[in-house]
Design goal:
Blueprint (H helix, E strand, L loop, with lengths): L24 H10 L4 H21 L8 H11 L12 H17 L12 H15 L5 H19 L11 H12 L5 H20 L5 H4 L19 H9 L8 H14 L3 H5 L6 E2 L4 E4 L8 E4 L2 H13 L23 H15 L8 H12 L4 H8 L4 H4 L7 H7 L8 H8 L1
Antiparallel strand pairs: 1-2, 2-3
Helix pairs in contact: 1-4, 2-4, 5-6, 6-8, 10-14, 11-13, 11-14, 11-15, 15-16
């Protein structure tokens, strides 16, 4: 009989003896698993952390030294010349793994919090961001875009020094605007730069700075918003798209529900992505839209076809997650909610399956407005359904209401009004 002692299995994760980080490996692994990451991804991340910990021991680094600078030193100085007996050196994997590690260590209070930019520009940007959020009620993406532009302007003129508006001239602002214009393709997109700069200069004016001349230094480029018809799907194309729904295959129920939300409710891609299970009242047959572009909360009726599509997805296809978003990722990490990009991609794929040449998801929102007008709804009713804060935004759809346009059209000179009316009918 063999007396050989059974071997003990070595637990997965960072190697034993990784003193700087081993106390936090269990929390690190749980953090990754809680976010729905696949087991293989978790193992790769753990191996990268083990590599970092091994290097820290050799270099005499302590846990208190861990931060962005140490991670940058490891990635930029050690990895390119690494001869360690490990395969955990792929740049993308290491960057992601150590980014997760910093989050876990800071949540546990094991390392210092992420350092704040204490330069004059950094403090200015935080104050203005607070103003945009709390006073103007701007959405995070809008604030982020504005801060990026304002930081570029302030860094260019002041670097890390104090901000002095008496040294910025309108000519400086015009030159900055001209340089930024190269990054934007259309007048409407370039208007974002004008809005960001003017909003910031007006805020500084309320604080007592003489920035009125800077506000007038940039103007919105010519952009005739009512010059063209809004593009939408023709009735036959809508039927073609709807006929292509209901196909079998991976994620098809999610795709059907997303298309119905955009086509039947006119939701923007971000609004579809942010729909929560708590937003749907199945008994009342309503859906509540929160965190919308207009910063409003609206209750809308849930069409039967839309409700059935969502229910089928929730019942038969949606994976189990801890988050409460209606639409979930079907690949790891599942605990990370989907974003607008996935919604837009799903709608593009639905167009392709239906044999339609379109690519823009926003066409379905325009299509809904066109169908409402064709059914006799007023512009005010369309504005309410689309949740426009200003009726001017809805005016572009007036050109789609051919029935009412005929009523206000003037007769062509030399043609009687009776003849014109008869021809229109």
């Amino acid at each position: 009989m063999s007396t050989k002692r059974p071997t003990r299995s070595v637990p997965s994760g960072p190697a034993r003896g990784c003193a700087p980080l081993e106390r936090h490996t269990r929390a690190y692994r749980q953090y990754l698993l809680d976010r729905g990451n696949a087991a293989g991804y978790v193992r790769n991340c753990e191996a990268a952390v083990a590599h970092l910990s091994m290097w820290m021991k050799q270099a005499g680094k302590r846990l208190a030294d861990v931060g962005e600078e140490l991670v940058a030193e490891f990635r930029e100085d050690h990895l390119p010349a690494c001869r360690c007996t490990t395969s955990a050196r792929h740049p993308d994997t290491v960057r992601a793994a150590l980014g997760h590690l910093l989050v876990v260590l800071r949540a546990a209070g094991a390392i210092v919090p992420e350092p704040l930019d204490m330069t004059a520009v950094g403090q200015e940007l935080r104050r203005y961001d607070q103003y945009m959020e709390q006073v103007r009620g701007l959405a995070p993406n809008t604030r982020e875009s504005a801060l990026r532009l304002i930081e570029a302007l302030l860094r260019k003129h002041f670097g890390d020094d104090a901000i002095r508006f008496d040294v910025i001239t309108p000519e400086h602002v015009r030159r900055f605007f001209a340089a930024q214009a190269k990054n934007y393709k259309t007048p409407s997109s370039l208007g974002v730069v004008v809005s960001a700069l003017r909003g910031y200069f007006r805020w500084r004016a309320t604080l007592g700075d003489r920035t009125h001349a800077l506000v007038g230094a940039v103007a919105y480029p010519a952009n005739w918003q009512q010059s063209s018809l809004p593009k939408s799907l023709e009735p036959a194309e809508v039927e073609q798209l709807e006929a292509a729904l209901g196909q079998s295959g991976p994620s098809m129920l999610r795709a059907d529900a997303i298309v119905r939300c955009a086509l039947d409710l006119g939701l923007r891609s971000g609004e579809v992505a942010r729909l929560s299970l708590d937003d749907i009242d199945w008994d009342a047959g309503t859906i509540t839209l929160r965190r919308t572009k207009g910063r409003r909360e609206d209750v809308m009726p849930l069409p039967q076809a839309t409700g059935q599509a969502i229910a089928a997805y929730l019942r038969d296809e949606r994976p189990k997650t801890r988050h409460r978003m209606v639409f979930a990722r079907h690949m790891t990490p599942r605990e990370r909610p989907i974003g607008p990009d996935l919604v837009r991609k799903t709608i593009r794929q639905a167009y392709a399956r239906a044999g339609l040449p379109h690519t823009r998801s926003h066409l379905l929102r325009h299509t809904m407005a066109s169908r409402l007008l064709a059914g006799g709804a007023s512009l005010k009713e369309v504005a309410d359904v689309l949740r426009h804060r200003s009726l001017n935004t809805t005016l572009i759809y007036a050109k789609l209401d051919s029935g009412r346009l005929v009523e206000v059209a003037l007769p062509w000179p030399g043609i009687s009004a009776t003849a014109t009316s008869g021809r229109a009918s």
